[in-house]
Structure formats: structure tokens, C-alpha cells
Amino acid sequence: MEKVRHVLGISGGKDSAALAIYLKDHYPTLDIEYYTADTGKELDETYRLIENLEIYLGKKIEKLKAFKDSPETPFDHKLKTLGGFLPSQRFRWCTKNLKLDVFEDFVGTGPVVSYVAIRGDEDREGYISKKNNIQSIFPFRRNIWSEDVITKVFANGSSPALLELSEQLPKTKYSGRIKEILTKPTSLNFSRDLKIKQLLDLSVKEFSHLVFAFVKKTNYPLSSESNFPILDKEELIDREEVFKILKRSGVGVPAYYNEIPFEVNGKRSTYCRSRSGCFFCFYQQKIEWVWLYEQHPQKFKEAMEYEKDGYTWNEDESLERLIQPERIEKIKEEYIARRERLDQSKKSPYLVDILEDAEGEGCATCFL
User: Fold this and answer.
1) What is the pLDDT of residue 108?
2) SS (H, E, C) the chain
3) pLDDT digits 0-9 by tens, 160-215
4) So where are the chain's domains?
5) I want to staple 117 with a disulfide (CB 3.0 to 4.6 A). Which of 15, 55, 98, 229 is the partner?
6) How far apart are CA 44 and CA 51, in angstroms?
7) CA–CA separation, 24 vs 27, rounded Å?
8) Distance in angstroms (rounded) separating the CA atoms of residues 20 and 39
């Protein structure tokens, strides 16, 4: 069979960078290829992070680029073909054309394992390719397997096979209890998710080995691998640990996560950017647009120049209106009030969490 490739996408954000470092440090036998999808519209800090990572990893990070024959940046080229129609949350053409398409061209048709940096403290599913030759793995979570795999493993008709596979695994102190959980049928009071949680609570390691034994009977890329070192991983990696990984390695935290103080009407707070990706990402909050205007005025000006013929980055207002002094003041006041409310709930001590939670997770693909 064709050799399985292992790949990891570097977005320029904290999580994918930390995952690259984590896998190199803990699983050096994995021969991982690193790549980044360059839209031509990233902040300089993104490119510096990639350079730092290349030094630490001792490997080149392949820079993928859509529309290679065009003298323009990939984003500008695609925008021109669409007549100036800007991407938005409802029409995310940038994700498909500038990231997904080049990624799938990069991996081709051979078997590929793609490592995705969804943290253990995040409640969301990451990118799962519709191509059968690409399998996603989530090393930072307790459950490293993608939803499509889990659906097959714990389908009602799979119970006999799963029980048989569990009997073939080395016996441990958990074996009896694992068999009991697997034997118990799902119901309204015992859902599939509860079954999985009970198995993970018993032993993450044995859960991973059981699913891997099932995967070996399928046509997933990992089915041809005799072993997979990540199966023995038990820890969960959360946001706090991500920052520790970046700092310990010397690669450092991307500069746009640094909190910058500001004051408005006698009230003080801090702001930063919550995500990697294009500097004009339409998933940004209003306070992040203000951050861009005040910290990177030239980039903000460039973003403004794209707004024409009725197309704007924000559906409810243009960037020209957003930077009016009274509007900036109001945005900052509303942001401070919202942050105070979220701080009281004590959901997270991190500002980037507050920014992300306020308006959703954004485009998960950009965090590959």
C-alpha cells in the first residue's frame, strides 16, 4: 500500500504552532510535513511566527499558494474574478478557494493523516475532509478521533465487532468495566456521548487503542499503519498549556495576542486580536477592527480600500463609519461593559477567550 503521509497545517495562530511543537517533542518518530496556506494578506507577525517555527522544528514549512501563475496575491486574484464581491460569514469563498483547495491539491490522492489543533477545552469539531484519503486527528483532545470515525465505531450495528475487538486487546484492570459499557445499549437515558464519556473517564489510552483496532478494519488511512504512537497519549491540552508550550520552546506567543491597554471616558481596559488569518478577516469583532486601526493603520487603510460598490466587511456598517471618533468611543465602551460581564462569569481568564466567545468561533478552517 502507498505510504501514509502525516501533515500539519500552520495557520500562524497559537494552537497550530503549539501542536507542531508538542508533536515534535513528544512523538519525534512521526515524520510530519508542515504547510501553511498563504493568502498574501497576513500580518507580519504571522510570517515571523512561521520563521521561528521552522528554526525550532528543523524543517521547512511548505508555503501553499493558490493561483500560482498570477502576479497578484491569491486573495486579490480571486476577488477580481468575483467582481469585488467580498467574503463574508455567509459566503466564505476565501476559505474554500485559498485554503481548502490548495490543501487538498497538496495532499493529492494518497492516504493522509491531518493533525488538527482543536484544544481539549474547546467544544467544537474541527475540519473533516470529504475526501476519503484524508483522516483528521486531534491530539490535544482526550478523544483524538474525528466525528465520522466515532459515528462508525459506535453505530448500533458495530457493537458485536467492537466487543470482539475489546477482547483481543491486552487485559487491564479496566477490561471488565469496558466490556460492561460496550454491552449496554444506547437509549434516551444512555446516549452514545455518555457511553464515550464513560469509556474515556475509565482510560483514555484504552479508548484510543480500541478505536484504532476498529479503524484497522476500515479503509481509513490509519488502517494500513501497524502502530500509532499517539494512542498512548492521555493528557488534555488546554489554552493555558498552549501558552506554556509556546513560551517554553522559545518560539513565543504571536505578538497580536499581546494585550494592549487603552482608556476611554476614564475607564481602562486592554484589547488584542483573537485569531490568526487575514488582517481584514470578517469574523473580527468591532473592537478588533479598532485594534487594527490604532495598531496597524496602514493595514486598516488597505482593508478600507476593498470596500466599494456596496461591498463592506461588516454587514451593518462600513469601515469608514466604524472609525469615526464617536463610533470608536462607543465600541470601546460596549466592549468594556461586555468584558466586565464575562469576567464576572469567570468563564476564562484569557482575553482572547472573551473575544472569541462574544461572536462565535469564526472560521475553523483558518485554524488548521
Assistant:
1) 93
2) CCCCEEEEECCCCHHHHHHHHHHHHHCCCCCEEEEEECCCCECHHHHHHHHHHHHHHCCCEEEECCCCCCCCCHHHHHHHHCCCCCCCCCCCHHHHHHHHHHHHHHHCCCCEEEECCCCCCCCCCCCCCCCCCEEEECCCCCCCECHHHHHHHCCHHHHHHHHHHHHHCCCCCCHHHHHHHHHCCCCCCCCHHHHHHHHHHHCHHHHHHHHHHHHCCCCCHHHHCCCCHHHHCCCCCCHHHHHHHHHHHCCCCCHHHCCEEEEECCEEEEECCCCCCECCCCCCCHHHHHHHHHHCHHHHHHHHHCCCCCCCCCCCCCHHHHCCHHHHHHHHHHHHHHHHHHHHHCCCCCHHHHHHHHCCCCCHHHHC
3) 999 999 999 999 999 999 999 999 988 889 999 999 999 999 999 999 999 999 99
4) 5-146+233-249, 150-229, 255-367
5) 15
6) 11
7) 6
8) 21
Contact 95, 363 (CB under 8 A): yes
For domain 5-146+233-249, give the CATH superfamily.
HUPs (3.40.50.620)
